[in-house]
Design goal:
Oligomer: single chain
Strand order of the largest sheet: 3-2-1-4
Number of domains: 1
Distance between the termini: 20 Å
Largest sheet: 4 strands, antiparallel
Strand content: 15-25%
Length: 82
């Protein structure tokens, strides 16, 4: 059995990563997912979630999406990847 709790992901602090799941960011205008380009570390669009950058928690993905939207690189949304 796997246990995902650790002091750094304490449920008492929900914005500090509490779930061991996978989430991706999707650009709403194009319907494409976002990934990190390996050489220059820039944000690029990819066709499906298999190539997208995957966040380990919903909270971390939300923080990144909020920042992208705030910087005018959105609108983007967070989707759970099964």
């Amino acid at each position: 059995m796997q246990h995902f709790w650790a002091p750094e992901i304490d449920p008492a602090h929900p914005m500090d990563c509490t779930r061991a799941e996978r989430y991706a960011i999707k650009r709403l205008a194009s319907g494409r997912y976002l990934a990190i380009e390996q050489v220059h570390q820039g944000v690029v669009e990819v066709d499906d979630s298999n190539g997208a950058y995957l966040f380990h928690t919903h909270e971390a993905a939300l923080r990144a999406a909020d920042e992208l939207n705030r910087l005018g690189q959105g609108p983007v949304d967070v989707l759970k990847v099964e």
